[in-house]
Amino acid sequence: MIRVLIAEDQSMILGALAALLDMEADIEVIARAGDGKKALALAGEHDPDVVVTDIEMPAMTGLELAGALRGQRAKVIIVTTFARPGYLRRALDAGVRGYLLKDAPAKQLADAIRTVHAGGKVIAPELAAEAWESDDPLSERERQVLRLAGDGMSSGGIADQLHLSEGTVRNYLSEAIGKLGAANRVEAARIARRKGWL
Amino acid sequence: MIRVLIAEDQSMILGALAALLDMEADIEVIARAGDGKKALALAGEHDPDVVVTDIEMPAMTGLELAGALRGQRAKVIIVTTFARPGYLRRALDAGVRGYLLKDAPAKQLADAIRTVHAGGKVIAPELAAEAWESDDPLSERERQVLRLAGDGMSSGGIADQLHLSEGTVRNYLSEAIGKLGAANRVEAARIARRKGWL
DNA sequence: GCCCGCCGATGACAGTTGTCATGCCGGATT
DNA sequence: AATCCGGCATGACAACTGTCATCGGCGGGC
């Protein structure tokens, strides 16, 4: 029996995934969590073989959860909507053993759990290639500024929030726009978000 | 036996929801579709009692699907991530019988299917109140322009795409910004998207 | 017929944004 | 010590954006 913990913030999806896995004879869902923090606590309590987690969750993201579980016995599989190279990169850096997309066929999840439990790795093929060829060129400041700009905040507002001068903020944005080959701040933010860099 | 068709573009979620419903003794998943168009075709073929559909899907959205099924025997339940009043409004206008959030507990889905099949309605409580109090104030042109602006396109680019003059585009944006109480086009686009108006 | 709303346009003006050159500072490298 | 680099700043300039007044056309409601 492979003992699995599932972390996923959308209750209905959590329940559905659990139902899916409970149909497998050799897999047992021993715990469910609605966010990363609860998942971490439950992992300590139940000592699962495999942790299946979403990325975008309240309190603690799946990537943070993977980092916190790093080095422990439980093997982590990320299951997410987002085909973002930056996410995969960060996941692998956090010692994750599997990275699947919710676009993939349902049966792949059980297969991935078995593979990972047996010591293997499973990476969504759409991402395996792209992951290493595009690297985040942004500095931390550029990321901060871009995040806020992408939410519609003006240069002045961003400057206030980050305790910078407005000119500096415009410099960072100009830098980021150049690095990403965008035409303006909004496009730059979109590109960075799509890649998983924000 | 309640005969159900499920439409959902994320394969894994589709499979998981089907597994969840197959556990119910009185519910039978007779068909699955990965987009709205296939769902419409399959609905014609299999004549389901209830159609459970996501909103954001390729080829045809769940809202369009609901519109196309309007007046037919099958009853439609929307299951979506998005708590956007505008979506609920459009869903109700399309004759939908249920609107659930993926945040809701998994067991509510089966309950909703039974309720709807019995002639009832099920609306996510988080949304029931807000739905009617905030109405989309935007004109069709304003929506178009705002969509493109929100994607980072410049006034000139939007003008080219929509065959308008740049000044006119700026006028529409200014209008939209004013109506939504935003500070600029990006914030306006965010507000409109959050409400489900785009 | 008249008014109103939506559509589309122009021109003018102030404010914001994007770019670039240039400068200062402190920490790390050599 | 000299050099380099990232972070932060300034100033200047061109381009883009947001606002407003004004105009004409078209269709619907009263």
Q: Can you characterise this structure?
A:
The structure is a homodimer of 198-residue chains. The first copy, chain A, is built from 11 helices and 6 strands. In chain A, strands 2-1-3-4-5-6 form a 6-stranded parallel beta sheet, with helices on both faces. The mean pLDDT of chain A is 91. In chain A, α2 (36-46) packs parallel to α3, α9 crosses α10 and α10 packs across α11. Chain A has helices at 11-22, 36-46, 62-69, 85-93, 107-117, 125-128, 130-133, 140-150, 155-162, 166-180, 185-195, and strands spanning 2-7, 27-33, 50-53, 75-80, 98-101, 122-123. Helices cover 53% and strands 15% of the residues of chain A. Chain A is elongated and about 60 Å long. Chain A has 198 residues and is α/β, with parallel strands linked by helices. At the A-B interface, α1, α5 and α11 of A face α1, α5 and α11 of B. Chain B binds a DNA duplex (30 and 30 nucleotides) through residues 139-141, 154-156, 164-168, 170-174, 177-178, 184-185.
Brief write-up:
Two copies of one chain form a homodimer. By secondary structure, chain A is of the alpha/beta class.
What is the oligomeric state here? homodimer
> Strand content of the residues of chain A, in percent?
5-15%
Q: Name the helix and strand elements of chain A from N-terminus to C-terminus, one letter apiece.
A: EHEHEHEHEHEHHHHHH
Order of strands, widest sheet of chain A:
2-1-3-4-5-6
**How does the overall form of chain A come out from the CA principal axes?**
elongated
Span of the ends, CA to CA of chain A: 38 Å
Query: Sheet bearing the most strands of chain A, described?
Result: 6 strands, parallel
Q: Helical content of chain A, roughly?
A: 40-55%
β-strand number of chain A: 6
- Poorly predicted tracts of residues of chain A: none
Query: What is the C-alpha radius of gyration of chain A, as a whole number of Å?
Result: 19 Å
SS field, number of helical segments of chain A = 11
Overall average pLDDT of chain A:
91
* Biggest chain pair interface: A-B, 39 and 39 residues
Alpha-beta content class of chain A: alpha/beta
